[in-house]
Specification:
Strand order of the largest sheet: 3-1-5-6
Number of strands: 6
Number of helices: 13
Distance between the termini: 78 Å
């Protein structure tokens, strides 16, 4: 059926306006990432932090007799972070603590940097929070405007290849990138990731899960290549000073015990059941090939450095338990 001239003009105009809106949204999103890159380099490395760093935590304090109740948990993607979040949420409920809730959906502005304006203060029992544990991109100065001080800062990391596979299936990228016909869609994707950039508008903010997402959640700018090499060491050193404990997903039980000791908690406080387990059978039964592993580690080289750095630190703490 042929539309009238006036109707056709309206349809074309609507399509153009929609395209313009999507283009502006995409441009704003990319601009924010670049700006955040400049902020973290200048504001976190070259300039002193607005708030002093705490002394390294103790994992073997025999005089520990009071549970620590002020905790910031930086929830990273597909790292068993939902299980950790459930531990903190239950602890907050049992102890009648003030917990920060996002103003919209279940994240604090992700993928944008955290802001105190993203907290629903009407649902916050106190003017500040004992616990904050939903997804939020790390911005230490902003967290200090919300948290009751002093507080412990905790996060969790996962081996980058396994984390990438999990994130790929979590984002349903097999369907989005039309890779259903391949035995290992992840390997097919990682052979030429840039080929799929044209789908980014379709998948929206989830595209941030497709490269160095753990570093991204901790606020390292992945789009500013000129900042990568020399600055990443500074970034690691900054995290090493500002994070009290980095859990490792592959050693979850050991990490939970260390967390208990650092926070002066009991074993009952860290009892858990696994959350957000993938039900995708293809993901569960696929063993990454040597080629896929190599390509994923190269594509996510920052996450590899991040993980290796904190794995080494974690294992050194673990040795003190032997």
């Amino acid at each position: 059926m042929v539309c009238s001239f006036r109707r056709c003009v309206k349809i074309v105009t609507a399509l153009i306006v929609t395209q313009v809106i999507l283009s502006i949204k995409n441009w704003i999103e990319m601009r924010d990432v670049r700006l955040r890159g400049e902020i973290i380099i200048k504001g976190r490395v070259e300039k002193p932090d607005e708030y002093p760093f705490q002394d390294p935590p103790s994992f073997h304090d025999e005089n520990c007799n009071e549970k620590k109740k002020n905790i910031l948990f930086l929830k990273t993607h597909k790292t068993a972070s939902s299980t950790v979040t459930s531990i903190f949420n239950r602890f907050a409920d049992i102890n009648n603590l003030s917990i920060a809730i996002p103003l919209y959906n279940n994240m604090f502005r992700w993928p944008y940097s955290f802001s105190k304006n993203s907290v629903d203060f009407l649902r916050l029992r106190l003017k500040s929070a004992n616990i904050l544990c939903n997804h939020a991109v790390y911005d230490r100065n902003e967290f200090f405007k919300v948290m009751i001080t002093p507080f412990k800062t905790v996060t969790i990391l996962r081996e980058p290849v396994l984390q990438f596979y999990s994130a790929f299936y979590y984002g349903n990228f097999t369907k989005s990138f039309e890779l259903q016909q391949y035995r290992d869609p992840v390997e097919q994707y990682i052979k030429n990731p840039r080929k799929y950039y044209r789908y980014f508008r379709k998948i929206g903010s989830l595209h941030f899960l497709l490269q160095n997402s753990q570093s991204f959640d901790l606020n390292f700018p992945r789009f500013s290549k000129r900042l990568y090499n020399n600055t990443f060491t500074d970034f690691l050193n900054y995290l090493n000073k500002s994070l009290d404990f980095v859990m490792i997903s592959e050693y979850f039980d050991e990490a939970a015990i260390m967390l208990k000791d650092m926070l002066c908690w009991s074993y009952m406080d860290i009892v858990y059941t696994k959350k957000m387990i993938s039900v995708d059978l293809n993901y569960k039964t696929t063993t990454p090939s040597i080629n896929a592993t190599t390509l994923i580690r190269s594509w996510n080289s920052l996450d590899v450095k991040l993980y290796d750095f904190f794995l080494k630190k974690f294992l050194s703490i673990k040795k003190t338990y032997n």
